[in-house]
Structure formats: C-alpha cells, structure tokens
Amino acid sequence: MGRGVRVRARASGRPADPPASPNRNRADALARARAHAAAGNAVAAVDCYRRAVDITPGHAQRLIEALQARGVAFIVAPYEADAQMAYLARTGAVAGVVTEDSDLLPYGAPVVLFKLDRDGSAQRVARADVPAARNPRLAGFDDAMFLELCALAGCDFLPSLPGVGLKTAARHLARHRTAARVVRCLKLAGKPVPADYEAGLARAVAAFRHQTVFCPQRRALVPLTPLPEGGLPPPAGPCTRFLGPLFDDALAAGVAEGRLDPMTRAPHAALPPLKGQGQGG
C-alpha cells in the first residue's frame, strides 16, 4: 500500500462452541437497532445494525478474491478474527491492528488503532497503557483483573449482570480483587446472579486467553496463549471445545490461505458473477 504501509487483512472462520461464538448476540443487536430506529436515534441504530451483520463465507470469498487481485496479504481465522489478529500482533507478524472492536485489548494485542478516519488519523491505544486509564480507574489492575473486568462488564461471550457495567465492575474489582469475590458479594447483596454465571465467566476469561488461532510460521492451530499444564481447571474446564476444537493442520492451512471454505473445510464453490460483471456495454 502507499507510504510504505503493508496491510494484512483477516476474516473470521467457523464459529466455535459457546462462549467463543458471538453469533447469538447478532439477533439482540438487530432488535436493539430496530428499537433505536423506531425511537429516532439514528446513530445508535447504525451502531447496532453494524453489530447485527453476519459475514458469510461467500462475503469472505469475494473479499479474498479482491485482496488476491491487489496483492494484499490476508489470513482467514479458524474461529474468531479478533483472537487471530491479536496473535499476529503479539508474535510480531503485524505492527498493530486497526479495528472498532475493543475485544482486541483483552486478547492482548499490544497496539490497537480505533476510529481510523479517511485522513489517516486514529486513536492509538497500547495494551501496556491500560492500567493508566482514569475512566474508569484501573490503577493496580494486573492482566488477570483486566480480563475479568472485560468479562464482568459484558462481552461477546457473556452478558453482563443487571446494573453491572464497565465502571461498576471496575469499582467492585478494585475493592475485591477477583471476579469470584465480586460475584459472591453481589449474591450476598441480593443481586440476581444466574446459576451458571460463574462458569460462564470463567469460560469467557479462558476464551480471551486461550482461543484457538492459526500460526503462520508453524502452519498449525495453536492456543492464543498456551493452556496451563493439566488443562483448564473448573469451572471453565476440563472441556475446551468452547475455545475452538483443533482440526487437521493441512485443513487449517487451507482455510487460513483462503483455499478452503471455513465452514465446510472443502474447496470453495464457484460464486455467481457479481451484478454487472460479464455484461457488455
């Protein structure tokens, strides 16, 4: 690309088992978008409509063909694109990530550019600077606390508890230091906490740490961060299918390189011509 900038695009692959798949949230986003539109809140409606969009393998195939035609490097994630981008950034394959999704920070991307404008301006956020945040205050938050904060405040993998947003979750964690203690205190205070919430919270944190990604150097599937010896402890483990099941490395490479459909892991079916292609005049 221009000015010495090299772009590496990415696309999502097959949804993993919950909680690693955000697909269930798209219907909720669509409902919220329609409600905002009916209320005349166009800005909020557009934001929710964007969250409701489902990118199909056909869409991804069109993009891959366009990238190949322009010589732009790309990779198709085996499961979640956010985790794949974070892995590329963490291993030095890319210098940074351009996105509108704040999940790149709990996944551990070192540098993220948000709100990229047409003039090239963007908001740069470094993962190392997160503890210096003032709104909410995150001083003293280590990596474990930050991941638990992201899960408690609500993420693609786990809805937040009623009345527990980012600031409230940060305040509770600053006082109690662990999510388990926060949940215990919420229960003692009479707050409604679903029976399966703590297990879902542990799985959400584990997904941020250990989501299955593709390693271009090894041409194999690997966890974003190595799993602990002996596997995940309860309540997140011992089953790890929610992180994205491993499958044959040759198939994983075919998916990553755009040769295989990420859903079927078979060669892509031929797409019909785009409207206007192949027509004279």
Summarize the structure.
The protein is α/β, with parallel strands linked by helices and 281 residues long. Helices cover 37% and strands 9% of the residues.
Describe the structure.
There is one protein chain. The chain contains nine helices and seven strands. The chain is globular, with a radius of gyration of 20 Å. Helix 5 (143-152) packs across helix 6 and helix 5 (143-152) crosses helix 8 (197-210). The protein is an alpha/beta fold and 281 residues long.
Please render the helix and strand layout as text.
Layout: E1 8-11, H1 24-38, H2 42-52, H3 57-70, E2 73-76, H4 81-90, E3 97-98, E4 111-114, E5 123-126, H5 143-152, H6 166-176, H7 179-188, H8 197-210, E6 212-215, E7 220-223, H9 249-256
Parallel strand pairs: 1-2, 3-4
Antiparallel strand pairs: 4-5, 6-7
Helix pairs in contact: 1-2, 5-6, 5-8
Fraction of residues in H or I helices: 25-40%
Order of helices and strands: EHHHEHEEEHHHHEEH
Strand content: 5-15%
The whole-number mean of residue pLDDT values reads 87
Uncertain residue ranges: 1-5
Derived from helix and strand composition plus strand pairing, the structural class reads: alpha/beta
